[in-house]
Structure formats: C-alpha cells, structure tokens
Amino acid sequence: MQIEKYKIDDFNQQQEQEHKRKFEVLASSLNNVEGVLQKLVDFQIGIPSWALGTGGTRFGRFSGSGEPRSLEEKIEDVGLLHALNQSSGAISLHIPWDIPQDYKAIKALAAQHGLKFDAVNSNTFQDQPDQKQSYKFGSMQHVDKAIRRQAVEHNIEVIRHGIELGSDALTVWLSDGSSFPGQLNFRNAFENTLESLQEVYAALPDDWKVFVEYKAFEPNFYSMTVGDWGQSLLFANKLGPKAYTLVDLGHHLPNANIEQIVSLLLMEGKLGGFHFNDSKYGDDDLTTGSIKPYQLFLIFNSLVDGMDARGMDHATSLAWMIDASHNVKDPLEDLLQSVEAIMIAYAQALLVDQQGLKGAQQENDVVRCQEILQEAFRTDVRPIVAEARLRTGAALRPLQLFRELKVRENLINERGLKTVATGL
Amino acid sequence: MQIEKYKIDDFNQQQEQEHKRKFEVLASSLNNVEGVLQKLVDFQIGIPSWALGTGGTRFGRFSGSGEPRSLEEKIEDVGLLHALNQSSGAISLHIPWDIPQDYKAIKALAAQHGLKFDAVNSNTFQDQPDQKQSYKFGSMQHVDKAIRRQAVEHNIEVIRHGIELGSDALTVWLSDGSSFPGQLNFRNAFENTLESLQEVYAALPDDWKVFVEYKAFEPNFYSMTVGDWGQSLLFANKLGPKAYTLVDLGHHLPNANIEQIVSLLLMEGKLGGFHFNDSKYGDDDLTTGSIKPYQLFLIFNSLVDGMDARGMDHATSLAWMIDASHNVKDPLEDLLQSVEAIMIAYAQALLVDQQGLKGAQQENDVVRCQEILQEAFRTDVRPIVAEARLRTGAALRPLQLFRELKVRENLINERGLKTVATGL
Amino acid sequence: MQIEKYKIDDFNQQQEQEHKRKFEVLASSLNNVEGVLQKLVDFQIGIPSWALGTGGTRFGRFSGSGEPRSLEEKIEDVGLLHALNQSSGAISLHIPWDIPQDYKAIKALAAQHGLKFDAVNSNTFQDQPDQKQSYKFGSMQHVDKAIRRQAVEHNIEVIRHGIELGSDALTVWLSDGSSFPGQLNFRNAFENTLESLQEVYAALPDDWKVFVEYKAFEPNFYSMTVGDWGQSLLFANKLGPKAYTLVDLGHHLPNANIEQIVSLLLMEGKLGGFHFNDSKYGDDDLTTGSIKPYQLFLIFNSLVDGMDARGMDHATSLAWMIDASHNVKDPLEDLLQSVEAIMIAYAQALLVDQQGLKGAQQENDVVRCQEILQEAFRTDVRPIVAEARLRTGAALRPLQLFRELKVRENLINERGLKTVATGL
Amino acid sequence: MQIEKYKIDDFNQQQEQEHKRKFEVLASSLNNVEGVLQKLVDFQIGIPSWALGTGGTRFGRFSGSGEPRSLEEKIEDVGLLHALNQSSGAISLHIPWDIPQDYKAIKALAAQHGLKFDAVNSNTFQDQPDQKQSYKFGSMQHVDKAIRRQAVEHNIEVIRHGIELGSDALTVWLSDGSSFPGQLNFRNAFENTLESLQEVYAALPDDWKVFVEYKAFEPNFYSMTVGDWGQSLLFANKLGPKAYTLVDLGHHLPNANIEQIVSLLLMEGKLGGFHFNDSKYGDDDLTTGSIKPYQLFLIFNSLVDGMDARGMDHATSLAWMIDASHNVKDPLEDLLQSVEAIMIAYAQALLVDQQGLKGAQQENDVVRCQEILQEAFRTDVRPIVAEARLRTGAALRPLQLFRELKVRENLINERGLKTVATGL
User: How far is A293 from chain B (nearest CA, A)?
Assistant: First the structure.
C-alpha cells in the first residue's frame, strides 16, 4: 500500500484553517519560529525494522495482523510512516532478521520511499538455527576465543551488509553478562569484550561509527558486561575516535538522571546516538513520551544545549532512533505517537530561552531557571510541529489520517490476518 | 506586610488584554470551560506552617532571610500567598512548633487573611526540650507503654488545639520503625501502634477525621512501621470510619504507581488527603510538578475520576496540602510555583474527555486512550488557571507580582535578615 | 531413571565420618538440635512442573538437554530430586502445560516417588492455540464479560484437575494490567477482577485454598492489577476465609522490605504461601539464596516467629514452593541448590534465640538484637541440614551425588539431546 | 579511659579453650590458614572522627552519652577500639570539626594508642560561622569563581593539616549538585568542578593521593555533580596519577552492582579506597554487614581478585575506612560490629578457592562457580578472625569485653551524660 500525495493534501485542506489559526496565535508570541520550523523539518528519526511487528514479553505474545512478512514490506511500512509525517526518513536493519538478498533492489525501494539506511544492528544474543557456536554464556565476552571470533565475524558481516546499503554506523548491543555471582570474572569479561570490539572496530570503514550500547539490567541477569554509561565510555575511549556511546532511555537503574549523562557524553564528544522509548519500571520499550514526557523534554534540553556548545548539526551529528516494542497497540500507530512525542519535546527544547536560562543560572535564581524551562514545556507546541509537517507535504495529523485511510485494514487485505513479522 | 487590593488590580489591568486573547482562543476550542473555572475557583490548597522557612538536609541548612518568626508571621505569609493566588486559603499547623497562645486572636488574624485551619499535625519524631520520655526508639509503636502514652497524649493535645482553631482533622506521621533487622518485632510494632492510634481515635470529635500517613523509607531506617498504603489502610480500617489514609507523593518506593494507589483508596472510601511535592530519588520534598508533571496529571486524573464516581465534592471531600521543603528557593516563591503546578494538573484532569476515555477503554483502543489523556495534558491550560484567579481577585501572574512588589525585600525590612522560622 | 537406595547409602557411608565429626562439634554448642532436625525433616518444598526445563528471556532461550517431554517425565525429575534430598516431596502443576490424561496412573506414579500434588496453577497470561477469546488485554480484569468468563472457567477446570490429583489449593497469577496510562480504569479493573475471583472462589471445594499472587511489575507494563501485597490482601479479604495472599520473592519494587510484609500477612492470618527465588534487579527468577541470602534468612525469621505466634505447623500451614527459571544452569542442579539454600535459611531461623531477642527488643538493645540474629546466620548450619537428610535416607550432599551418578547424562541417553520441556 | 593489657589477657584466657577447639576444627579443613591469618592481622580499618558521636537524620537527633568532646577524646575512643580489636589502627579526621591545635601532641597521643592518621576530609557542604562565602549553591562547582576559590583554599588548608599529622591522602566529597531541572548546566558544573579539583591537585605533595568520592543522590537533590563512578573516574583520569575514585557502599542507585564497579576500577588502576557501611534504601550509613552481608563478601571477593591480579598489597594499597552514622546504637559498639563484619567478609573472600573458580568459569560451570563462592561464605570464619586478634593481643570477643569492662559507663563518668561530639 502507498499513500497518494493528493490524499494527504485533501486531508490537510480540511484542517488547514483551524491549524493556521492556532499556529498564528502561537507564532505571534514566540521568537524565531522560522528557525525552529526549519530544525523540525530537518529532524529525522530512524525506525527499527524489528518494531514493525507486534512484540511480546517472556510470557506471552499476542500477535497483530497485517504485519510485514519481508524486508520489502518493512520498508513499505516505514515508507507509510514517512509519507504521513516526513520525519521518519530512515530505517535501521537488524541482521540476521533482515538480510537483504538484492542490495540494489532494496536500495531502490527505500529511495522510492524517501528512506535512507541508518545504523545496522548485529545480534549475538540469540542462537540462529545454523549457528556453529552458542551464545548461551555470552558472545563478545565469552571465555572461549572461538565463540568470540564467531561474534566478531558476525559483526563484520553486518558491516558488509551496511556498506552495500549505504549505512554508515554499526550498533552493538550485548546481552552479555552473568546470571549469578561468580559466574564470570568481571575484569576478564571486560577485557575479552574489548578485544572483540577492537577486532570489529578494525573492520569499520573510515567514515563509519560504531555505537556501544549499554544496559543496566535484563531479567534473569545479575551483571551486564556493558552495564552503564561509564563502562560504555571506557570501551569507546579505548577503541578510538570512531567509537561512541549509545543511550537507550530504558536501559538505566531506577531514578538515573539521563539528562545529565547525555550532557556529559556530549561534553566528552562521545555521544553517538539515541534509542527512544519510555518506561515505568525497567526496559519497558513503551511509546516514547507516554510515561515521562518532562524527562524527554529535559533530555532534549541537554541535547540542544550540548550540541550547540560544540557546533554540532542537530539533524546529522547523532543517530536518532526509536527502539520500542508494541504489544498492545498497532505498531505503526505506536510509532506515529512516538515520533510526535519526540518532535514535541524537541520543539519545546528549541523554545527554551537559553540566554535567559544562563543568566538565571549565573545568579542562582533557581525559581527563574524553573520558570524558563516550564515556560517552554507548558507551551502547546503541537501547531508548530504540525506546521513543519505541512511545509514538507506531510499530514497535519498523521495518526488521524492513518485511521481515516484505513491503512491497517488495507495491509491486512494485502498481507493477511495472521502474519508475524520477523524480529523480537 | 499586606498586599493592597489595588496593586493586584493594577497589575492585572496591564496584563488583561494579552490574557484575554489567549484565554478566548483556548476557551473557544473547549467544552464546559465555565464548569472548569468554577472548580478551579473553589479549589484551595493548604499551606503547611513549617514550609514557610528555609529547610535543610541532614548535612547543611542555608537559611534564608525575612522568615516568619512567629505563628502570626506564618499566617501573614500564607495570607500573602492567598492574596496573590486566592488558592491557598488554609494553613496547616504543626504542634509544638506553632502552639497558639491566644486562639481568638489567631483565629481573627487568619480570618482577616481569608484563611481557615486545615489538619493539625502532631510531632512524635523529635524530642522536645521539656519532654519526659524520648522517642529515640519510636513513639506510638514503642515497647514501653509509658512512652506510647506520652505520644498519645501529645496527639490528644494537638486535637484540643485544633478544636479551638476550628480545624477538623489530625494528621499523624510516624517516623517509627527500625534501623536494623531484629531491632523490633514487626507484629508487635504494628499492634502497639494500633493500640495507640485507637486511643487517639477515641479522643477525636465526631466530625473530625484522622489521617494515617505512610512512608516507605527514611535515611537510616531499615523498616517503617507505617511503610506503605497497604499498612496505612489496615490501620484505617481497624480504627473506624473517621480514619483515612493520607498520600504524600514522595513517600513511595522507586517506580511506585501512585495514581493506581489513589484510585484504589478512593474506591475503598479511605483516601483522606494529599501531601503534594515532587521528587527525583526519595522523599525530596521538591516543588510540586518540578520533576514529574505528567505523573501529577495522572494522579489528578485518578482523583477526578474517583471522586466523581462517588459523588464527592472536589474542593471539600479531601484534605489538599503541600508538604515541601525549600532549601534553595525563596519559600514563598516556591509555594507559588507549587500551587500553580497543582492548579494546572487539576485543570488538565478536568479537561480529560472522560466519556471518550471510557469508550476507548471499552474497546481496548489503547492508542486512543493515550491520545485522549495527552490531548488534555498537552493543552496549555495556563490561561484558564489565570482566568480563575482573575475572577477571584487574585493576580494573573502571582509570582511575577510577588517579585514586582518586592515582597521578600519588604519582609526582610520588617523581620530582619537573619531570621529562622521554627520547624524543620 | 531412578536412583537406587543403595547408591545413596554407599555415597553417605563414604562421607559419614567427616560429616559426623562436623555435626557433633556443632551440635554440642547448640540447644535443641533434635527439635530443629525434626522440623527440617518435616519441611517439604514444592517443585513447579515448569521449572524442570531450561527457561529463557524475551530475547533468547538456550535449551538444555535431556529435558522432560511429558508430565510423567516431570514427575520422574521431581522424584529424582526427592530421592536425593527428601525435601522436595511435592509437585505443582501448571494447566494447560501439564494436563493429566489418566489421573489414576499419574497419582500412582507420583506416589511411587513419594510425591504429593501441591497447589495447581492456572494460566490466563497466554493464548492457547484452541482458545476462543484472547487475553491480549487481560483476563480476569477484562472489560468484556465473555473473556472474564473464559478465564473463570479455565480456573474452574484447573480446580477440577486438582481435585482429581489430590491437590487442595489453586494459585492464581494474573499478568493483567496495562501498558499505558489511560488504558484501563484502575477501579473497574479491580472490580472486574474481584467479580471473576469471586466466581472462581465459589467453585472451590470447602477444604481448598486459593492464593492470589501479586507482582509489582512486568516488562512492558505500566500498571499491574494485583500489584502489591496491599491489593492482594484486599482481594483476599473480600473473597473470604479460603483466600490468601501468596508472596513471590521477586515480585516487589526495589528495596521492598519483604520480611515485614510476611510478618503482617501472618498477623492478619492471610499469608497463604511462598514462591522462592532470588533476584538482583527485577523478577529474575534466580536460584533461591544466590543473591541475598541474609534477606532469605530474615524472611524465615519472620515466618518462624509469626507461625509460632499463631501456633501454626511449619510444614503444613503454608504452601512452600520454588518458582525459578533456569537459563544457564542444569534445572535439576539449580533446584538442588535452591532447596539447600532454603533449608539453610530455615535452619538458621530455627536457631535464633527468640527469647533472647525478645528481651533485647524489650530493652531497645539494638546491638544485642543484631548480635542474636547474626549469631544464627553466621553459624555454618550445613551439617545440621545434612544430618536431617541422613536420617531420612537422602544424600548427605545431593548435588555431588547427582554429578557422580551422572544423572543428566543418563536422562539425555533416555530422552535425547534436543528435548524441550513444556512451560515457560 | 584506657584498657589495660592484662584485662584483655584475662578475658582471653577464660575463652581460649573453647576458641581453640573451634579454631582447630575449622583450620583442619582449610588450606593456608596461616596465610589468611597474617593478612587479617595486617588489615587495618580507619575510623572516621565524625562517627564517634550519635548521628541524626534531618528530622531528629537523639544524643547519646559520654561522647568525645574534643579531638583528644576522639583519639582516645579509637584507641579503645584498637585496643579491643587491633584492627582499627587509623583515624580519619574531618576539617573543620577536628582542627588540631598542637600537631606534635596530637601525633604523640595517636602514637601512644598505636594509631596513624588516615585520609583527611574536607567539608564544603556546610557553612561555617566565620565563613565569607556560602556553599548554598555549591562549592567546587559554583558559578562564582570566588566561592570556588574559597572551597579550593579550604581543601589546601586540609592538606596542610594532613601533612603535619603524617596523613598522605585527601578525601573530597561534594554535595554539589542541583535541586531542580535547569538550576545548573551539567557541563559547566563539571568543568568548574574539574578546574577546582585541578587547583587542589596541584597542592598535593608528591606522595599523596586525592580521592574523589561519588554519590548518586541526596535528599532534596535532583542531580549530583559527582554522581556515579563514571563521573568520578572521568575526574580522576583528567586530574592525573595521584587521583583516585573512592567507593562508599551507600552511594549508589537502587540495585547497582557494586562488586562489578570495584572490579573495573581496580582494572583501571583507579580505585583509591572504601567507605564501608550498609543500607536498605539509600545512603543509610548503617552498620557494615547488617543488611547485605553477601554483597559485602562479593565486594571483598572482587577486591582480593583485583588486587592480587595487580600484585597490590591488601593492607596498604587502598584506603579502608568506615563511614557510618550511629543513631540508635552506642557508636563504639556499632564500630566494633562493623569492623567484625568487614573482617569476616575479608576472611571469607580469602578462603575462596580462586583456582577452582577460574576453572569453573572457564568451563561455564555456573553451578560450580556458585558452590565455590557459597562454600566460602557459608563457612563460619569467626574463629579465624578471633585467632588473628588473639595473636595481636586483642580481645577474642571485643564487643563482649567492651560491655564487661563497662567502657561506656566509664566514659560517661569521665565526660558526663550530656556530651555531644562535633560532627554530623
């Protein structure tokens, strides 16, 4: 299924008058709305190929319908999102769930939807049917060199796929760790992992980056070998200038101050990218902004401040990606909600009176500091986000149009009621 | 110091045009704005007498200036807040920090400021200079009946003060618990506490309530004898119809779902009141809404739904109070920010399309459920809250006027630079 | 495979001299060792049928070998454990994973291994292939009465199986809850769940119990409908005298004081049973005692104190069960370690000088309280636990014998290398 | 008060027979007991001068009796502890609470008690009466250079005191941070702090170390400027070879894996020392080993493994110190319990079959790994710890002798009932 341009235009025309009224009232009380709009237009969020189907927990999975059955259909899905919001212009593949057969055809298909290929992702946390060695006791950290070697080679293979597709970054996430005290020697695990990562690093093209993702805990784990930003940063520093830390919002201990971590990683020049989602208790992989929207805003405030301090281009310097699991919502609707929440938080952060804030900080006027942040956060920026979409030909209200066009019903007609996407 | 009415009117006149423009745009897209406005007008938040001075941690306290030196000056302070926002029409006293000498004069003074006396608070977590028995090892839970008796009598004395002042509720917070495994027998501690509370309960006037506040943890504690809502509810049920649970937002284990607790306590008819504040890690007693404004909104959503389901009057059925500590902000400014955040969350909750939400829930349309909540939360309701203030003669922007009128400077002139309020 | 009695005797004979030496030194410095030994002999821990195969996380599962392929083989597995330690004399079945075809044969097989049938477990957190309605949006709490009805009927069917097998309790665990704010109305969810549980309760035989298990969080959840002991106790109280709360050690928010919860539930006469395991971060389902052995001891200290205060028989008044997942260990070895840790904690708790403790508590001699608890905990009670085994014909060192007899290798020979047990 | 040597000898003689019996049984089943004993004899734990009086929380403080009124009496107190256990041979001073007037006399007094001076501690988290600038908004991080300068100079003054006393390390703990989002810019706070630390570092003698202590949270804080080991390590690396990270057991987010952090810091050559205590919820400063003794053992296991891997001397390479608050126990008794718990954990870690563990790890025999650790932990090593004391002339049971000699009663006679030690 594809969404014809005229349908979006028709939809927008019906809504435009009301939209313009709200936008103009808002714009009239803000400075530099055009600058904000341009930044919103440029900002693109990568969609992970594994988030297009219904996810599950370790207990149950309740599948959806009309899910993509192939890499081609996954690209089609992201294309639908991008057509609706013009903010989802990239797809992030996961090997081996998305091994392309014909690179040229795949690239052409993606280009047709206006999509580029974001960071490619390796998988050494599951055993594949034809796999020689098992990752039961870890991959890059494993005590057995042969298993580490297999994991390294898999990563190198992933890089090769990425090169063919025009990607320029590799994301490594390890569920390596231990379930029990004594199971591994933390130092050896770190050193083995470092050695493995160095071998992968050596295979990176010059213009590539590698993202070392950290995670504080997993069910059934007692320790994680890349467990926090401190460990990830240690790896990134030991690896070299192409290595960066990747922050996933759900991968922290309770109450962690993520906005501070982000600020420090930017200060060190080692923040590589983001996995957006939200959580109540652990790594819940819920819709971004659905639980803690103010935290999301504060993170974007750290990002904007930190990127500007280093003269980094917002749209291209970091890898922006969603990493969520959709268990009780339609995956495409869920992704539309996530992208909207990200754009809102970004727009609010762009509206922060940075100069006023610096002044208030300089005077330790804590009340004013809070007023300035809340002024931005309490502003209803949805008309600005919508206006950015309008200017790029996207829908003023993507989710509403998704439903009006009966996109999922169409996909079910095309693909069937009982399809299960590859992936988690 | 008192704020003359004309100063507020002058201030409002300057702002009114801009305010009206924003309010009208907003009102035109909402239903039942008048109903919402009336509810906001009626809603009053109690100010605790101990929050009018600068607080501290166990490490340091960095005092402020112009703090109230007496109960009279505390009432004056709350009067200033209420003049500015007309939403702080009650004061909650803490005995023995605020023992009134002349009830009649104190009542007259409060009335002059338009204030009533909220729940009175007892203190059995500190030893007073003239106290016979020590609370070092607990008060209502103590193994020694004589010490329990002293704590009970103190509470009864607090009730007597409250009766004289026209209060109609007693809040009991116990830092009773233990620092080490084995220090106490949990069952005996519960039973002793229950016996003590029963004796206090017996002394309650017929039209009074007693609030049993719970708290999950304190620095240097291993167990708390009223540690969670389950324990508080057990006490409240065993005590009788005048006993209720009081929820303090900072008194929970990490990640606790407070909005669910609130909903269930309302279901059981046992929610008595609220202590508003905010926190990042523990019982941080920070400005309400400064860390997790969406959680605050969700709690109000539970409150509105639950109170309406039982036909409870929003303004009078529950005891609404701030309980915060102001360490790096001017206490009065901090309280103005807290009240504003509470009014915003309440207004947003009132705007939730409850019927639409019920429909979406009935269909398990989770995407729509989220849209409905976020629609309300993302709306910039500040013009509505300001309009409610305008209609009651309060300031459109209380904090701004507080600063323009140089209230603190005036108080310093009156009271001196180095004053320390009694209390925490 | 079955372990012949003489093999155990041979093994014990080799070890007996050293064992006796240690036991006697220890026994000579303790009071009432015989009483402790008898309690240890009587204490039996149920083994869940789903813990006999290798578990997994939502990411990967790395299967083991020689896993039981049928209910008969599961009983055989528990029989092996029981032969080795004589402390695992019960099996807890999970429907529909273990639907017995021939009750009489199954009961005979169990009896042959000296096993009885513990609480039966229902499953409404997964959809079964032939199931009419889906539990995607909950089961007992569902907004749709038809789905609630299906869940109720499933539970009643589970009771019927249990009656046939001689079980006398039903454990209900619900992963009912919500993933997002607004998805459900907490009050309605509670009320629907209560109604469903009441229908199940009505179907309970007179001498049965129903255990309402609570859980604070699940990955991908925002709220749990039976989320803490307070909620579970509300249900149990509303249901009636046959309803009890079941405590699973991994089902709490971070830092929860479980030993206090246990004490209060016993005080209320509403503690029904236990699911033993251990955890570092969340519901990790690790080997009991592998992470926090002192907490396990403190829990048993609460249990011993609380059961004795009510004159409850330790062995029969509560349902004792392991609930763990074995991802990187041989499941049978893991269970042997769990049972050993439980027996050690129980023995230590039995050694606590309860009278001395009460005296120290009465004097608020906190130092002495701690000394008394630590005296028991620091004692190496393994010789006592071993002696209890020796007297019942079990192995002095079950795990060592398990390895010496090459039990797993034998099971692989019998069952094959690539077997996957039904269950999680 | 001083404890005459003969009193200890008399006490030991009464207990020696029973002790020897237990020690010999234990020693006969262990390897290399003599090596372990020597390590225990050499191991000394510093006592902080501020832990000799009764502490408090932000709510109340319930003072003890006979507390030291001067630095001299604090040294006397530590001398008493050291006489009893010969494991507390160092005192750690806190400036300005313990400013020595006469260095020579103080050094002579300490030497008389067999004590050396451990790391000196600076205090920039409280304002002193005569202080020019306030630390209300931070010290080393402050936006105002003058305030940073004052904090730096205070630290340099502390170094000067330390030099005079023969100390060779400075511990810096900052309660710098913020209470509200927006209050500070994380990057600027880090950079200001770094600049301040660099100025302090420049004043360090060549053979000194500086320890940068981190802490995840404080009541009333939203961010901490040295909030986790990653940040502390960043500072230590940027400062240079004399800078190290200091780990305080209570300064972590819930569930943090401290034993892994310790292992990685040792790997990086940047672990400087330890503040021992224990906690249930936050920074509770409870008696070491009173809540999570297995975690303490696992930490010592990481320490022994990590120090041995680098050929570090256990006794002298790291700064070992208690940092606790004694609110409901006699401070000296509490410290005796802490030292005992530390020695037990250290002895257990020394008993771990390191070679066997490495072998099991190499084979991923997770069951055996756990058995090996638990074998050491479950061993009752108290006779070994007591034997080490016997050999150094300390008491077999320090706490018992403390009570039998009525040490506190004597101190009350000497110092009075109502003394309050300087410090927290």
Answer: 7
Distance from C-alpha of D338 to C-alpha of D345, rounded to nearest angstrom: 11
Per-residue H/E/C for A295-356:
HHHHHHHHHHHHHHHCCCCCCCCCEEEECCCECCCCHHHHHHHHHHHHHHHHHHHHHCCHHH
pLDDT digits (tens, 9 = 90+) for C286-337: 999 999 999 999 999 999 999 999 999 999 999 999 999 999 999 999 999 9
What is the dihedral sign for C-alpha D382, D388, D390, D395?
negative
Q: What is the C-alpha separation between B125 and D93, in angstroms, rounded? A: 31
Question: How far is the C-alpha of B398 from the C-alpha of B342, rounded, in Å?
Answer: 14
Determine, for residues C286 and A56 on separate chains, whether the beta-carbon distance falls below 8 Å: no
The number of C-beta contacts closer than 8 angstroms across C and D is 63
A378 and B380: CB-CB below 8 Å?
yes
* Helix or strand (DSSP H, E) at C172: strand C169-173
Mean pLDDT of D296-309: 98
pLDDT, tens digit, for every residue of C33-77?
999 999 999 999 999 999 999 887 767 778 788 999 999 999 999
Please report how the helices C366-378 and C354-362 are oriented relative to each other, as an axis angle in degrees rounded to 10. 160
A127, C60: Cβ pair inside 8 Å? yes
CB pairs under 8 A between B and D: 129
Residue that is written with structure tokens 């309060």 in the block: B394
CA–CA distance, D213 with D227 (Å, rounded to integer): 9
- Given an 8 Å threshold on Cβ–Cβ distance, is D281 in contact with C337? no
Kindly state the average pLDDT of the residues C85-96. 96
pLDDT tens-place string over residues A148-200: 999 999 999 999 999 999 999 999 999 999 999 999 999 999 999 999 999 99
Chain C positions in Cβ-Cβ contact with residue D293 (cut-off 8 Å): 294, 377
Packing angle, helices C258-267 and C229-239, rounded to 10? 20
Contacts of D222 in chain B (CB under 8 A): 280, 284, 286, 290-291
Residues in chain D within 8 Å Cβ distance of C328: 364, 366
Distance from first CA to last CA of chain A, Å, rounded? 24
Contacts of B237 (CB under 8 A, 6+ apart): B243, B270
> Domains plus CATH for chain A?
13-56+63-413 (3.20.20.150)
Region C385-394: mean pLDDT is: 98
Mutate to test the interface with C, among D367, D381, D402, D404 (most CBs of C within 10 A): D367
CA distances from D400 to D4, D15, D168 (A): 16, 11, 34
Candidate from B186, B263, B366 with C-beta closest to C180: B366
Strand C169-173 with C209-213, pairing: parallel
The answer for residues whose C-beta is within 8 angstroms of residue A100's C-beta and 6 or more apart is A71, A93, A106, A161, A164, A165
CB contact under 8 A, A234 and D264: yes
Chain position carrying tokens 């300005």: D96
Q: Do B62 and D134 touch (CB under 8 A)?
A: yes
pLDDT at A319: 97
Please tell me the distance from the alpha carbon of residue C257 to that of residue B223, in angstroms, as a whole number: 7
Residues A15-42: pLDDT tens digits?
A: 999 999 999 999 999 989 999 999 999 9
Question: Alpha-carbon distance D225 to D139, whole Å?
Answer: 11
User: What is the predicted pLDDT for the residue at A417?
Assistant: 81
Q: What is the pTM of this model?
A: 0.98
Judged by CB atoms closer than 8 Å, whether chains meet at C223 and B257 is answered as: yes
Helix (H, G, I), strand (E, B) or coil at B278: strand
The ipTM (two decimal places) reads 0.97
- Residue B388 and residue B87: Cα distance in Å, rounded? 10
Interface test with D, best of A247, A297, A364 (most D CBs within 10 A): A364
Q: What residues form DSSP beta bridges with A213?
A: A173, A246
Contacts of D290 in chain C (CB under 8 A): 370
